């Protein structure tokens, strides 16, 4: 046995041998999922709007676990950008087994002040981006009879919230997309699920107003915002063999903000 083979065996490994695409991987929840997947032995194709240098921290953290990690700069809302990313990720790793649609943006506005451009951009990244990445990566998963799609929604897509109609609409639609696609492809070996986190301490949360965050904190049963590391285990579960009976579900690491 070579050192490289011995090292392969030593890696903890619920995702060993899998290739995962994670979008929005340069920051926050996506960076946490990338590192968590790397820790579990996955090879990674990391995708973000920012360039490779700006994604250096997550690339270093993921590579420290010994797997193969590639980076692909892409705008998930743009069809040609996603097509190029899907081709490059597949070429870099030979195949893609797991897709985490995590890239997302957040802005805040009362509906009466919300610009049409803001509505369109939030829907384009959060919903169209989820559609495009899935559309251009799922076919080989279906052909091979194994795949996982994990869509990062939000608890605001389940319960709504003030000043976030566009964001809530995009995330509610991601949950509906998840259910519909899950029904379509589960028998072909591809399992599609969503995670709807509550408020998690990332740069995105910093974009919410202080007033909004205080009000949310006051109503959260757990009395604190979540950490990225409290979302990652759910993503590992849904991406791995252990998640083999989850179909079209929306799992909620949300501090009790939503109780179904
Ligand atoms: P974040 O720290 O802002 O990270 C999002 C990442 O996605 C950023 O690196 C961002 O790049 C990238 N991105 C944005 N638009 C993109 C595009 N068009 N194409 C490719 N990448 C793009 O936010 P986060 O909190 O980790 O959020 C991750 C996901 O979790 C989002 O879908 C968000 O809606 C969801 N979520 C977050 C929370 C929370 O409280 N944090 C709660 C529920 C759900 P730039 O920095 O260049 O924009």
Q: How would you briefly describe this protein structure?
A:
This protein is an alpha/beta fold and 260 residues long.
| Straight-line distance between termini | 50 Å
Specify the CATH architecture. Answer: 3-Layer(aba) Sandwich
CATH top-level class = Alpha Beta
Fold-level CATH name: Rossmann fold
Explain this structure to me?
- The protein has 260 residues and is an alpha/beta fold.
- The protein has a single domain, classed as NAD(P)-binding Rossmann-like Domain (Rossmann fold, 3-Layer(aba) Sandwich).
- The protein contains 10 helices and 7 strands.
- It has helices at residues 3-10, 28-39, 56-63, 79-93, 116-144, 156-159, 165-185, 203-206, 210-219, 232-239; strands at 19-23, 43-48, 69-73, 98-101, 147-152, 190-195, 250-251.
- It starts with a helix and ends in a 9-residue tail after the last strand.
- The model has no long low-confidence stretch (mean pLDDT 96).
- The protein binds NADP nicotinamide-adenine-dinucleotide phosphate.
């Amino acid at each position: 046995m070579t050192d490289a083979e011995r090292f392969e065996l030593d890696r903890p490994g619920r995702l060993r041998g899998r290739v995962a695409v994670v979008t929005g991987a340069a920051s926050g929840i996506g960076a946490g999922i990338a590192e968590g997947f790397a820790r579990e032995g996955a090879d990674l194709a990391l995708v973000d709007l920012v360039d490779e240098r700006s994604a250096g921290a997550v690339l270093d953290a993921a590579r420290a676990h010994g797997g193969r990690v590639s980076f692909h700069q892409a705008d998930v809302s743009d069809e040609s950008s996603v097509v190029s990313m899907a081709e490059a990720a597949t070429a870099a790793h030979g195949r893609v087994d797991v897709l985490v649609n995590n890239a997302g943006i957040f802005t805040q506005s009362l509906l009466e002040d919300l610009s049409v451009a803001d509505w369109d951009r939030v829907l384009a990244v959060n919903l169209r981006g989820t559609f495009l990445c899935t559309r251009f990566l799922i076919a080989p998963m279906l052909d091979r009879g194994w795949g996982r799609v994990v869509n990062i929604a939000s608890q605001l897509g389940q319960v709504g919230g003030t000043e976030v109609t566009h964001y809530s609409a995009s995330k509610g639609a991601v949950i509906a997309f998840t259910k519909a696609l899950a029904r379509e492809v589960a028998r072909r070996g591809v399992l599609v699920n969503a995670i709807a986190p509550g408020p998690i301490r990332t740069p995105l949360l910093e974009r919410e107003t202080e007033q909004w965050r205080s009000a949310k904190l006051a109503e959260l049963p757990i009395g604190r915002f979540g950490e990225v590391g409290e979302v990652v285990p759910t993503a590992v579960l849904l991406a791995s063999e252990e998640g083999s009976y989850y179909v079209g579900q929306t799992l909620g690491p949300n501090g009790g903000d939503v109780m179904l």
